[in-house]
Each structure stands twice: as structure tokens, then as C-alpha cells.
Amino acid sequence: MKIKTSPLGNMGANFYMVTCEETNELFVVDPGACADVAIDLIKDSGAQLKYIILTHAHADHIGALDSVKAVYDVPVVICSEENDALNNDTYNLCSMFGMHSPKTTADICVSDGDTLPFGNGEIRFLHTPGHTKGSMCIHFENCLISGDTLFYGSIGRTDFPGGSFKEIEKSIVEKIYSLDSNTMIYPGHGNPTSVKFEMKNNPFVHR
Ligand SMILES: [Zn+2]
Ligand SMILES: [Zn+2]
To answer: What values do phi and psi take at 87, rounded to 5?
Structure first.
């Protein structure tokens, strides 16, 4: 699998493109802003888009969803616990940023441990509440796209609606630190990291 990271918009949420080099299939994660750029990136990849996946429904991760979905009508995937927030201005912080909620609704709601076929294998979803009620991570091969749950040397804020420090701590320890320690982590903002590095160095949640 090939991973391309493009921070988009003022808040620099990472727009991820994951391509299976064997089947030339593609899924994208968090089209947060700059719809034209996101659409061009998908076009330029020359790959076949299969899914638009949302790690959670915050404004900086969904701002370009309607525009991308209008061009690429492929299934939008979200955690079932986050589905209500997608179209709720208060829960997704759109009102706080002077934005409107997407009109797009999710096509596939997933729960912890669910998988979807992709390439010659599958992608697996981990429900990791704490930053929001329905935050989730996307696991494939030895990679984890962690949304705003875990960052390089940091963790997501827990003071927004649905947030809980206790929950994010539990999610990180039980769902992420239990993965193979060589798993690479691709966060919703900033640089990649690894399970091994965070278990040792993360000042908020370590063991
Ligand atoms: Zn967020
Ligand atoms: Zn974010």
C-alpha cells in the first residue's frame, strides 16, 4: 500500500490517500478542506476510488466532503457512533467555524472490529472514543490512520462535545498500544509516528 499525506486548509488536517499498488484501488480519508485540491489529487492518482472514510466528523475533517462526493459518488464510511454528528452543526463544530454541515450522509456505518474489502485484503476499523464519541482509527497492513485520537507526542483534545479524557486514554491503551509495536501511525494532524515511539514517549498516555 502507498500512503500520500496532504495537509489541507487552515487547520492542516491531513487528507490521506491510500493506494493498493496491486489492484490500483484507492481510498481517501478526511477530505477536510480545499475541495479542488483534493479532487485533483484523486484525479491525478489515476487510481479507482473505492471509499471516502471519515475518522470523525469535526469540521476540519469534513469540509470538502460534499464537493468530493459530488464528483466521486463512492460510499462514505463513518463510525456508527459518529453518524449523528456528521450533519449536526454543534457536534461537528461547523457552527463554531462559521461553516455549514455537509448535506452528505454516510453510506456505511461501521462498528469496532468491522472490516471492508480493499485491494487484495481488507481494512479494519477500531472504535476509539475520547476525542469524539465516534472517533475511529483505520488499520491496514502495519499502518494505522489515527484521526485526532493520537498524534506524534500528543493526543487529541477532549474538551469538545462528546469528548472524554478517560475514554481517549482507554482507547489509546487498549486499542492502539495493543497493536504490533512496529505499526506506523498516521495522525489527523502533523507527522507520522509509531506505536513503539508513543508507548515510550507520549507524555499524556504512556506505559
Ligand atoms: Zn477533531
Ligand atoms: Zn482535526
So the answer is: -115, 25
